[in-house]
Amino acid sequence: MAFEELIRRYERVALSVAYGVLHDAAEAGDATQEAFLRAWQRLGDLQDPSKFGPWLCNIVRNLSLDLRRRNRHVTATGIAESDAAAPANRPFMRLVPDPADEMQVREERDRVGAALAELDETTRTALTMRYYDGASSKEIGEALGLNPAAIDMRLSRGRRQLKDLLGHREGDVRSEAHA
Hints:
Blueprint: H1 2-22, H2 25-41, H3 52-71, H4 76-89, H5 99-117, H6 121-133, H7 137-144, H8 148-178
């Protein structure tokens, strides 16, 4: 029962860390599940139970990095084929009435994802936990082993970097259109 409570308490944080590395919800779920399994198997190695959150996040981060390295060879064609197959298998997943709207949302998500990928891992994870999971600076700090002030600094710097990255890309498109 006690481990079930740890899962409930840290599942969202673990998913956020995995998503920050992998940028894919399904893979993040797989990495998180594997991390909890490994944590359960290695619980005896944890010397300070109050450090379970950071310890788990390190397991999640390492598993996610391994998974990302293994999957790096996936081609754009393979991704396009799996996306094309999704509606046939799950037609209820396509509820966007206008394909142009769906395309615009996908392009924006890809732009933000590409900008996030350019940030360092800790800043990307902190931003993901704050804005996708709603975690506080204290919660993020506990998960990453940093104090809340350091998290606030990383969040501020990360927002500024994202703004610059997204602004430059937007500016590049505008200048190409006027050329």
